[in-house]
Amino acid sequence: MAHIQLAEEFYMANEALKSFTPTSASIPPPGVNYRLRLPSGTPVHLHALNPLAFVLRSAQIYSNKLAIVHPDVRHPVIYSYAVWAQRIQNFAYGLLEAGIQPGDRIAFIAPNMSAYHGVLGARAIICAINTRLTHGEVAYILEHSGAKLIFVDHESAHLVKGAKAPVIVVNDTGKEDDPYEQFLTSGRKFSNERGWAGLEWERNEDAGCALNYTYVAPPHQTGRERFVVDVVIGSYLAAVANAYDTGMNRDSTYLWILPMFHASGWTFPWAVTFASAAQICLRSVSYPHIWNHLINSGVTHYCGAPTVQIGLINAPMARRLEKPVFAIIAGSAPTAHLIGELEKRNIKPVHVYGLTCTYGPSTVCYYQPDWTSRALDERARLLARQGHAFATAEEVRVVFPLKEGESLDAPLVDVPKDGQTMGEIVFRGNIVMKEYFKDPEATRKAFRGGYFNSGDLAVWHPDGYIAIMDRSKDIIISGGELSTHPDVLEVSVVARSHPKWGERPMAFVILHPQKAEKWAGRHSEFEKDLKEHARKRLPGFACPEWVSIVPELPVSIIVLEEVVRVVT
Amino acid sequence: MAHIQLAEEFYMANEALKSFTPTSASIPPPGVNYRLRLPSGTPVHLHALNPLAFVLRSAQIYSNKLAIVHPDVRHPVIYSYAVWAQRIQNFAYGLLEAGIQPGDRIAFIAPNMSAYHGVLGARAIICAINTRLTHGEVAYILEHSGAKLIFVDHESAHLVKGAKAPVIVVNDTGKEDDPYEQFLTSGRKFSNERGWAGLEWERNEDAGCALNYTYVAPPHQTGRERFVVDVVIGSYLAAVANAYDTGMNRDSTYLWILPMFHASGWTFPWAVTFASAAQICLRSVSYPHIWNHLINSGVTHYCGAPTVQIGLINAPMARRLEKPVFAIIAGSAPTAHLIGELEKRNIKPVHVYGLTCTYGPSTVCYYQPDWTSRALDERARLLARQGHAFATAEEVRVVFPLKEGESLDAPLVDVPKDGQTMGEIVFRGNIVMKEYFKDPEATRKAFRGGYFNSGDLAVWHPDGYIAIMDRSKDIIISGGELSTHPDVLEVSVVARSHPKWGERPMAFVILHPQKAEKWAGRHSEFEKDLKEHARKRLPGFACPEWVSIVPELPVSIIVLEEVVRVVT
């Protein structure tokens, strides 16, 4: 294969990568062009926005540049933009070959996937499913979404047993005999070398492209899961803002710490390609691998769930990085301690906020020019706020919540910008989901007053920054370590007032389903066990004072929303 | 007024700025919000893209940050984002008060203007007119555009004498008694403090927002000027790409060297506000002022017509800058000499290409990661190419030109990517004009094959870079100095083959209309005069070997297109 620019560090350190050869179906034909067929009647001066454009453009300009690499696995793979684009095209043709029609849902249960681009080529909809769900939950999603085709990572294959739709296993090898590669190879054959021109550009910017499973919080809680429909123009604009606001460009390297299946990976699968940046995949949150890449692979950006950060700064390999790395943090406000520790390692926190219903992050706590000179505590207090709508979003507001008996059509009223009056955060515009899938009634309620009502309670500060009140408490993020306890499925740690220390950590834990019985009626013993687990791994101040098992909390909750949901 | 952040350098150096107070009508009311009225039926999740959003968002997040300053005039002015946004709102209300309807054209003949934002508030269309045109040409544009209202800088007032539409003179003072300020103050009163909510958001992304006068080159030449209609979504997306691709952000300061009336200022009036950056206005290309700002005002970006660069590097104040400045250069390729000289001064050239019909620049010669290590000459050769479509544009192509007798609907055929076969550059997508105003026939011809046909001849290189053949010659840019000759109106200098030196500069000159008679029949004497003028100001190699007076070249030609047009 052609030499991939800028990937020397991988070649050096990794013999398997050095000798890796993409399947022959992954190699683009000579004279490839990147133009899809346009629907007839497309005006010369209007082109439906679609994030598929990003990877096409990157493949054109930076064909030999590193697009994506998956190094820390038994069979590492590495693809240039030109090769990766060809694989995306093959995937799209594979879908067509399988009879997929525009608007059909494609399920993906895997830590990583390039399907975020591939589905756009076939005008299908990706339904990425959390690999940590149970078989029953996955079955529910497959049923509800009506997925026509299922791709599943070999480690998650048990989750789709008995599924009605055809299943394709991804062995994550990149080798010709991998069933996933056979799907791509077959797609390439099916294309009959028509190339991109054999696929049609989506004319409707409002067409769905991702279906994301979420948990809906009060006041819209009905006790069941919802599917969030994201559309192509929203995905395009959210990705542009994520790239722009985090300063990603062609010199950037993005490390996948955030699972790619969380709310379309916060649109970063597309944001990274808008920037023509490189991306490094992981199969799980492994601190040695993460630090190896931070130190040796030129990583410039990562998104981090709050539970990841403490583990990251406490890892044995942790050190000060030569060049700054931007950590996009959502889910809870970074504390002064955390900011200080990250800064010591030359990691710069970017505090963002959003929900699955807003394509992941859609606000940024923008740094004001005069904050840099402030003391750490003061900066942390300012940075803890959720901030303002990001570059392509409309203004985020804090409004008085729905009153008893009030019409859903009543105009929303802003709370005063006094930093004190509590209200509900609402969003509107292109970075808001289209609807809950097959649930017009829930959609109608969520869209009270012409805005998406987040259910998050917040104040509006005089400087225009919004701040979630629950989150504005210093939340101690030690969940990353707690989640390594073998019986823990999900965990969130929040600050709770303490008579002596002011505040101490409290952990909310969801047990692994198969372990729930083991601890039934013995919650205090589990608490003891978890605290012991914590003491071995965390400084005393970060160990939980209290532990609460919350079996009723849906395990599918996305990390973005995790802390607030648990606290309410 | 509130202290403006980051503007210390201006306050320090400029007493008049220090004491400047905006008119009382410029001060936003307490509790201002930035939401326009939405047309009924606007979906929650779709919001028509409109660059007005940029200044609203900047005013919200960075209300006290420097938005715009005009320092080097008798009455300097400086506005924060909050104050500037209020002035933009006042302008919109002023238009409504004057009876302006959506789609009406507003003429502006001035070196600087915030009308690019203000018209969007009233859903009107700005028609910015080159201040260097003659009275007759201005009259033609006013007539053809049907401008309902005319704003004219006090120095250009003679150009609109006898105009039918009402004229408002801009004295460029920022003081209460300035007729322009009276217009804004009256607009504020007319608003009755309804604020932004009293204005309606443009529902139609395809509505016109700018009308730009251009000269149409062969093969579409008909000997008359054309008006290019730009729409709101195109302006939005072009501005986003210009900000993203040049790395502008809230820490940036943009210096207006490019006239703001050239092809909507290449959309930089909006791009700068997308970035929440600061902008510094000039009334004319004055090297001492430019260098003062490069050295003392934190300038990070400017757009430069080719004729400006040589003057810039040869100015007495020229020196190496502490921090890098990005020079966005269009109109001709930067030569190795120029790149070298700019780099010595820590100015980094970004070579862009486009036409008035493509919102100004819409391609960038993207730097490949491995170019940095190449020798200057090699880099210059690579950088001289026009490159690839920019971040929000669709692929730019080089196709075989229209054949004799061929249908305009015939599909376009790419030239081979061999770096040799000449073809015509064509564009399509959101960064292409909507149409020629009131000229469907010319539009139809320009849109042959579903693409905008540029008339520029180019080759397509194997690496996907397009390169204009005329421009790929090393064009010696000494026009900046030649244009200081008192009898010269416009000048372009190109390379022409020379028996001894390989290539030598040739100057094409348009004389000032009032000087044409003076030199009538004495062109060789003028040539001698101009060469002498050049020798006093330029190194020998940059002095023109030949001088040609070209009275038939429209003086309104935009700098972007200047060189190529003259060469054809």
From TrEMBL, chains A, B:
<dbReference type="InterPro" id="IPR000873">
    <property type="entry name" value="AMP-dep_synth/lig_dom"/>
</dbReference>
<dbReference type="InterPro" id="IPR042099">
    <property type="entry name" value="ANL_N_sf"/>
</dbReference>
<dbReference type="InterPro" id="IPR025110">
    <property type="entry name" value="AMP-bd_C"/>
</dbReference>
<keyword id="KW-0443">Lipid metabolism</keyword>
<feature type="domain" description="AMP-binding enzyme C-terminal">
    <location>
        <begin position="482"/>
        <end position="554"/>
    </location>
</feature>
<keyword id="KW-0276">Fatty acid metabolism</keyword>
<comment type="similarity">
    <text>Belongs to the ATP-dependent AMP-binding enzyme family.</text>
</comment>
<keyword id="KW-0436">Ligase</keyword>
<protein>
    <submittedName>
        <fullName>AMP-dependent synthetase and ligase</fullName>
    </submittedName>
</protein>
<dbReference type="GO" id="GO:0016874">
    <property type="term" value="F:ligase activity"/>
</dbReference>
<dbReference type="Pfam" id="PF13193">
    <property type="entry name" value="AMP-binding_C"/>
</dbReference>
<dbReference type="GO" id="GO:0006631">
    <property type="term" value="P:fatty acid metabolic process"/>
</dbReference>
<dbReference type="InterPro" id="IPR045851">
    <property type="entry name" value="AMP-bd_C_sf"/>
</dbReference>
<feature type="domain" description="AMP-dependent synthetase/ligase">
    <location>
        <begin position="57"/>
        <end position="437"/>
    </location>
</feature>
<dbReference type="Pfam" id="PF00501">
    <property type="entry name" value="AMP-binding"/>
</dbReference>
